[in-house]
Amino acid sequence: MTRKQTDTDRWSRYFAADGSESVMEKRKGFGEEMKVLMINGSPRSNGNTSTALHEMEKIFLQEGIETEIVQIGNQDIRGCIGCGACRKKGKCVFQDVVNETAAKFEACDGLVVGSPVYYASANATLVAFLTRLFYSTPFDKTMKVGASVVAARRGGLSATFDELNKFFTICGMPVASSQYWNSIHGAAPGEAEQDAEGLQTMRTLARNMAFLMKSIALGREKYGLPEKEAVQRTNFVR
Ligand SMILES: Cc1cc2nc3c(=O)[nH]c(=O)nc-3n(C[C@H](O)[C@H](O)[C@H](O)COP(=O)(O)O)c2cc1C
Q1: Is the pLDDT of residue 124 over 70?
Q2: Fewer CB under 10 Å: which end of the chain, C or N?
């Protein structure tokens, strides 16, 4: 099994014919090939976030799970303008990597989001990307497994970890966990290779995530996805 960096054909079967709409959800049965989409929110494609993601990727490949890494932190990505057009269009009005990644997100069984810590938060480019990606995509994300990993020189790791996990927990995505909060230490690119505990945390996370994804595929076959009620929205103004 090899990692597919740019296997657009494989993913694009989930695009609608005209490329404009999100298609009906396609869920795989147990035993079908699983995929994890990995988002690197660092501007450095070979930095410490990348080290963490690649450590996980080795385990996914051992587990027979296909992966793809999408590099986000080095792209020019604007934030959400709250226009609401995505509710009608089923995609963001800004045609960029957000809409390109949407179909990959829809097709994947698991999503890993990695970020360097910038001022005790995630990289702002990544936050712009995730905000638009999660808000503009109408497909059901329930039971896609999420995991976030963070890299920093010294501080702000668990705050950033919390920030990223909230994208998963607003939309029915179970969060995979490890033996410690999913963080790795290093400043210059490659320094994280020396963080033995951080690397082990990433491997454990990938094993736990693979188990969860496979268990969910089995459970979905046996029990189906949980029933959904019509969403009630109550806005509190005072
Ligand atoms: C703008 C900026 C802000 C940063 N803020 C923090 C911080 O709050 N805490 C910290 O420990 N490291 C901070 N760092 C260091 C990075 O988190 C660290 O170098 C990390 O390994 C970068 O990951 P990468 O190699 O994947 O880009 C900051 C770096 C930059 C460029």
Answers
A1: yes
A2: C
Per the listing, tokens 């497994």 go with 145
Q: What tokens does 60 get?
A: 């996914």
Report pLDDT for 32: 72
Domains for the chain: give ranges and CATH numbers.
Answer: 32-223 (3.40.50.360)
> What is the atom index within ligand 1 of the atom nearest the CA of 51?
26
Residue-wise pLDDT tens digits, 67-107: 999 999 999 999 999 999 999 999 999 999 999 999 999 99
* Cα–Cα distance, 191 to 7 (Å, whole number): 30
Instruction: Report the relative pairing of strands 110-118 and 65-71 from DSSP bridges.
Output: unpaired
Cα 114 to middle of ligand 1, angstroms = 13
Around ligand 1, the residues with Cβ closer than 6 Å are: 42, 44, 47-50, 116-120, 151-156, 186-187, 189
Alpha carbon nearest to ligand 1 atom 28, residue: 118
Query: Ligand 1 mean position to 224 CA, how many Å?
Result: 42
Residue 69, φ and ψ in degrees, nearest 5:
-105, 130
SS3 category, 233: coil
Q: Inform me whether the pLDDT recorded for 20 exceeds 60.
A: no
Identify the DSSP state of 15.
B
Q: Which atom of ligand 1 is nearest to the CA of 73?
A: 27
**For 63-181, where are the alpha helices, taking DSSP H only?**
85-89, 97-107, 124-136, 157-169
% of the chain surpassing 90 pLDDT: 83
Predicted TM-score (pTM) above 0.85: yes
